[in-house]
From TrEMBL:
<keyword id="KW-0964">Secreted</keyword>
<protein>
    <submittedName>
        <fullName>Uncharacterized protein At4g06744-like</fullName>
    </submittedName>
</protein>
<keyword id="KW-0677">Repeat</keyword>
<dbReference type="Pfam" id="PF00560">
    <property type="entry name" value="LRR_1"/>
</dbReference>
<dbReference type="InterPro" id="IPR001611">
    <property type="entry name" value="Leu-rich_rpt"/>
</dbReference>
<dbReference type="GO" id="GO:0005576">
    <property type="term" value="C:extracellular region"/>
</dbReference>
<dbReference type="InterPro" id="IPR032675">
    <property type="entry name" value="LRR_dom_sf"/>
</dbReference>
<keyword id="KW-0433">Leucine-rich repeat</keyword>
<keyword id="KW-0732">Signal</keyword>
<feature type="signal peptide">
    <location>
        <begin position="1"/>
        <end position="26"/>
    </location>
</feature>
<dbReference type="InterPro" id="IPR051582">
    <property type="entry name" value="LRR_extensin-like_regulator"/>
</dbReference>
Length: 441
């Protein structure tokens, strides 16, 4: 399976540790802290007066060369009743403070009371925010990571928030109710390598800005309402994981993808056009999970599926795939789950497939298979193989003779029919003991 979650755990731990360390340093180095004043009772919580550097009305970006105002502290007592001094451990935190407060002001729902903690200058202690030393200045402190997973926050947009966190490396916000489109400005987030906005209400086109983010390795936008096409270039980006399932994308799998090193790819529950291109399997030799279910894939399964040597899960259930199963499936030695239920597949279930040692679930129900050999029958008994609702004589729960006859009344061909018994991983050693039958009722 994909080990992305382990990576996340490790990196989050790292950040937590860094935060603890930083917390200590921050207190020691308060001499260098920036001072800001924030007007209280003046109506707007967002109105900042940073003495000495704010000549344009509170605009961002913060000026890095602005002088520290030492006098502010000494004049403070006189103002104490009206003003509160915010001291930031680093100017980078001062910079994102107004961004966060502005975002807080557009949050429409916060059932868990998360944003109650988004108060004051200690941004690194806000729930969901984690700080670290940014790569370009190891003595600075910046918001490096956000983990809002499961916070159930609602906001109409992330614009003006995510794209204004210049040092962010990880942004995880799954299972919230954030909406709108993703700003093209996120392309400027030079350190962002993990973006997870799955299970939200995002809409609009594929966030093409990610194509310009060379450091991005993990993109999870599944379970949203994105529409339109998916740019082909995304498959050749630096990504390890690409999750775009359960949107309203129209995906035309390109016939010539080129090389990619995506390990996890989920395209399920979108709208696909056309066949599974042969090149997709050549392009993704290291894919561990392939989820293509409930799409509109058509055509025959090319023998190149056998090139997915690392595949553990392959799921293309509920499509319009047809033809016999390629014997090359025997090359998927790590395969644990294969779901091709609910397609238009026919012929024999290859015995070489049933021989795969790690299979725990082989779902071929609701197709038009006509034969299973002895090894596959063992899997049926062990409830690994499900061939219900096919056309296999002598097995229970099969389609009616009429239904099968109707299906086979139309001649059905696949291109390169010779190739479906070809086993690329052992081309010369295997010889089939089962005669390959032409489909007949
Ligand atoms: C690095 O960050 C520290 C702390 O914010 C700051 O004082 C210093 O000027 C920064 N160095 C550079 C080269 O920007
Ligand atoms: C096997 O996979 C199918 C399709 O994904 C699923 O519906 C079924 O529940 C699974 N069976 C078991 C025993 O896990």
């Amino acid at each position: 399976m994909c080990s992305i979650s382990n990576i996340i755990v490790v990196s989050t731990l790292h950040i937590l540790l860094a935060c603890l360390l930083l917390h200590t340093t921050a207190q020691d180095s308060s001499r260098d802290a920036l001072e800001f004043t924030i007007g209280i009772g003046s109506g707007s919580k967002d109105s900042y007066l940073s003495k000495g550097c704010n000549d344009e009305h509170h605009t961002l970006p913060f000026r890095l060369n602005c002088p520290l105002s030492r006098t502010l502290i000494t004049t403070l007592p006189a103002l104490a009743s009206e003003k509160e001094v915010l001291e930031f451990a680093d100017q980078r935190l001062a910079l994102v403070y107004p961004v966060i407060q502005k975002f807080k002001s557009i949050i429409t729902s916060d059932p868990l009371g998360i944003t109650k903690t988004w108060l004051g200058s200690d941004v690194c202690s806000y729930r969901g925010f984690y700080c670290d030393n940014p790569p370009d200045n190891k003595s600075a402190i910046a918001v490096a990571s956000i983990d809002f997973n499961g916070f159930q926050l609602a906001a109409p947009t992330l614009d003006g928030f995510l794209d204004k966190l210049p040092d962010i490396a990880l942004f995880h916000a799954n299972s919230n109710n954030f909406g709108g489109t993703l700003s093209p400005n996120i392309a400027k987030l030079r350190y962002l390598y993990e973006l997870d906005i799955s299970n939200n209400q995002f809409s609009g086109p594929f966030p093409a800005a990610v194509l310009d983010m060379s450091g991005l390795t993990f993109l999870d936008i599944r379970f949203n309402f994105f529409t339109g096409s998916v740019p082909v270039q995304i498959f050749t980006e630096n990504l390890d994981a690409l999750f775009i399932n359960n949107n309203n994308f129209m995906i035309q799998l390109p016939d010539n993808i080129g090389s990619t090193h995506i390990l996890c790819l989920t395209l399920a529950n979108n709208k696909f056009n056309g066949p599974l291109p042969r090149s997709i399997f050549k392009a993704f030799p290291s894919l561990a999970e392939v989820l293509l279910l409930n799409d509109q894939l058509t055509g025959c399964i090319p023998y190149e599926i056998g090139l997915l040597k690392e595949a553990v899960v392959f799921d293309a259930g509920n499509n319009q795939l047809t033809g016999p199963l390629p014997f090359s499936l025997a090359c998927l030695e790590n395969l644990e789950q294969l779901n091709l239920a609910g397609n238009l597949l026919f012929g024999t279930v290859p015995e070489v497939l049933c021989e795969l040692g790690k299979l725990v679930n082989l779902s071929l129900s609701d197709n038009y298979f006509i034969h299973v050999g002895p090894l596959c029958r063992i899997l049926i008994e062990r409830r690994v193989l499900d061939v219900r609702n096919n056309c296999i004589p002598g097995l229970p729960f099969q389609r009616s003779i009429v239904e099968c006859a109707n299906f086979f009344a139309h001649p059905r061909f696949c291109p390169r029919m010779w190739a479906h018994t070809y086993i690329p991983c052992k081309p010369f050693t295997y010889s089939s003991s089962i005669p390959e039958m032409a489909p007949s009722p």
